[in-house]
Amino acid sequence: MKKLLLDVDCGVDDAQAIMVGLADPNVEILGITCVHGNTTVENVCKNVLRVLQACNKLEIPVFKGAAKSILGIKVGDENFHGQDGLGDAPDAGAPGLDLIQEENAVSAIVRIINENPGEVSLVATAPLTNLALAVRMDPSLPAKLKGLYIMGGNTESRGNTSVCGEFNFTADPEAAYIVLNDYQCPTYLACWEFTCYNKLPWEFCDAWLAQNSHKARFMAKIFSHSIEASKTERFEKEFIAGSGLISCDSYAMAAAVDDSFVVESDQFPVSVELVGAHTRGMMVVDTLGLLNKTHKVFIIKKVDMEKFRKMMMAALK
Ligand code: BDR
Ligand code: CA
């Protein structure tokens, strides 16, 4: 059984990634920690509960974390995810926030990893604020992690938020810097350009959502706003290499749940630009080894797309 802890800014694509994890019978999700990002951290908490409700998994503990970046900046991506982060689809029966645990997300990350040394993989599909705070609380944390799987960063300086910044890193560059420096454990990055080059065709998306299940109907409802947005000129530009379904957070999840999913990766030290008129938040790949860092991350290059399709389909069954 794989033990996972998820850190999310749920977000329609986070919802998809969570559902990929929940659908795998060999995965135990120990908890879901929430952080600011696509929407407010309160909305993120509500959204995670809605996803768990749709999947009949409300027993998984959900924790509320940081509401802003390390420097106190609040972002959002309402154009793509809707005002509430899940496409503004009405949901009268949504669970109440009283189901959120009292313990803060950062304390929960520290506690859960310490309770299961060497066994937990962390899947982060959001700004890395909670993870940065957790390693400051307990510097021994990375050594106790089995693996860290992140959706974030970019390799070709192609941005989806600023000229050359990916959303999760740009939303909290200091946190991304701390995490890439201090989490010296096996680390896998599903970067923005990689997810764009491996998008799924809209025909797949149609068949995916047309499955006769409660989960598929739930996804069709929360995803329709983002699908519409994806087909607009603005997002067509952002989504390198044409239009299609980019379930970006699901690649990090798929890598965490199945060791054979990643077929090829580059191994380099990486860092994050903290200053610069246009480059703040951009990931820097040290191909020449000039930063004198010993820790190299795995930058995912090629994955088993057939497996990905199967995992995505199973998520909504
Ligand atoms: C990432 O940013 C967020 O908007 C998405 O949920 C995803 O994690 C894409 O850059
Ligand atoms: Ca996300």
Provide a concise account of the structure shown:
It comes from Poecilia reticulata (Guppy). The chain has 317 residues and is an alpha/beta fold.
Q: How many angstroms does the end-to-end distance come to?
A: 21 Å
Largest sheet: 8 strands, mixed
Strand order of the largest sheet: 3-2-1-4-5-6-10-7
The number of E-state strands comes to 10
Helix percentage range: 40-55%
Strand content: 15-25%
Oligomer: single chain
In the predicted model, the low-confidence regions spanning at least 5 consecutive residues are none
The overall average pLDDT, rounded, is 96
H/I helix tally: 14
Name every ligand kind in the structure.
beta-D-ribofuranose, calcium ion
C-alpha Rg, in Å?
18 Å
Alpha-beta content class: alpha/beta
Along the chain, the helix and strand elements come as EHEHEHHEHHEHHEHHHHHEEEEH
> Can you tell me the overall shape?
globular
InterPro entries: Inosine/uridine_hydrolase_dom, IUN_hydrolase, Ribo_hydro-like
Organism: Poecilia reticulata (Guppy)
Family: Belongs to the IUNH family.
Protein name: Si:dkey-4e7.3
Keywords:
317 residues, alpha/beta, two-stranded antiparallel sheet, 14 helices, 10 strands, binds beta-D-ribofuranose, binds calcium ion, Si:dkey-4e7.3, hydrolase activity, hydrolyzing N-glycosyl compounds, IUN_hydrolase, Inosine/uridine_hydrolase_dom
SSE layout and pairing:
Elements: E1 2-8, H1 12-23, E2 27-34, H2 41-54, E3 62-64, H3 78-81, H4 105-115, E4 120-125, H5 129-137, H6 141-144, E5 145-151, H7 167-171, H8 173-182, E6 187-190, H9 192-197, H10 202-209, H11 214-230, H12 233-238, H13 248-257, E7 262-268, E8 270-272, E9 283-285, E10 297-303, H14 305-315
Parallel strand pairs: 1-2, 1-4, 2-3, 4-5, 5-6, 6-10
Antiparallel strand pairs: 7-10, 8-9
Helix pairs in contact: 1-13, 1-14, 4-5, 5-8
The chain binds beta-D-ribofuranose and calcium ion.
